Amino acid sequence: MRVEIITVGSELLLGEILNTNSQYLSEELNRLGYSVLYQTTVGDNKTRLAQALQLALQRADLVITSGGLGPTQGDLTKFVGAQVMRTPLYFDEGVYKAIEQWLQRRYTSPVITENQKRQAMIPQGATVFSNEAGTAPGTALQKKGKTLVHLPGPPRELQWMFRQRLKPYLLRQFGSQGYIASQYIKVYDLGESLIEERLSDLERQQQNPTLAIYARPGFVEVRITAKAASEEAANTMLQPLQKEVERRLARRIVTYNKETVAHVLGRLLKAGHWHISAAESCTGGLIGSLLTDIPGASDYFLGTIGTYTDEMKQQLVHVPASLLASCTAISAPVAAAMAVGSRQLYGADIALSTTGLAGPGGGTETRPIGLVYTGVSGPWGTVTHKNIYMGDRREIKLRAAVRAIYYGVQYILKHSA
Question: Family, per the entry (predicted)?
Answer without folding.
Answer: Belongs to the CinA family.
